[in-house]
């Protein structure tokens, strides 16, 4: 992972405070930054290129990050800052969701696919499936288990030549 350029916005993900150490993970100038709520200071910074979505697996103390260059799922241990895993993922990612019930990670990408990763344990992840969505379908939503045990994963595909915009709905299964 290399450091290049500056981002033009800041993405913030608030987490629960664990031992008053970590309050926020956010991106700034191509860096993944760990910010302390207790001391208002930067605890760690990791170089990651471009904008990237994040999710937190609080039970296993893992920060899940989808990078664009290179396109990867990157996993950090939030207690030590150690890089746990880096696996190839969909290109042009925009959203990432962690399904704690199934121990899965869903990453939607503009290349027209969703990468689905299975967490075997806190340090080991594997690509479970690469599911076709639609070209440009980066924006997605996952809201956990719904009624009658059905989970839904949504991908928004933008208008492009010869195709209207659409929302794709996927039913997640065990």
Could you say how many structural domains there are in total? 1
List the uncertain runs: 1-25, 35-43
Any idea of the CATH topology? Methylamine Dehydrogenase, Chain H
- CATH architecture assignment name: 7 Propeller
Order of helices and strands: EEEEEEEEEEEEEEE
CA radius of gyration: 16 Å
Overall 3D form: globular
- What percent of the residues sit in helical stretches (DSSP H or I)? under 10%
Protein architecture, described:
With 174 residues, this protein is mainly β. It has a single domain (51-172), classed as YVTN repeat-like/Quinoprotein amine dehydrogenase (Methylamine Dehydrogenase, Chain H), CATH 2.130.10. 0% of the residues lie in helices and 58% in strands. The protein is built from no helices and 15 strands. It has strands at residues 12-18, 22-28, 31-36, 41-47, 54-57, 62-67, 72-77, 83-88, 93-99, 104-109, 113-121, 124-132, 139-145, 151-157, 166-172. Strands 1-2-3-4 form a 4-stranded antiparallel β-sheet, with no helix packed on it. Strand 5 (54-57) and strand 6 form a beta hairpin. Mean pLDDT is 76; it is low at 1-25 and 35-43.
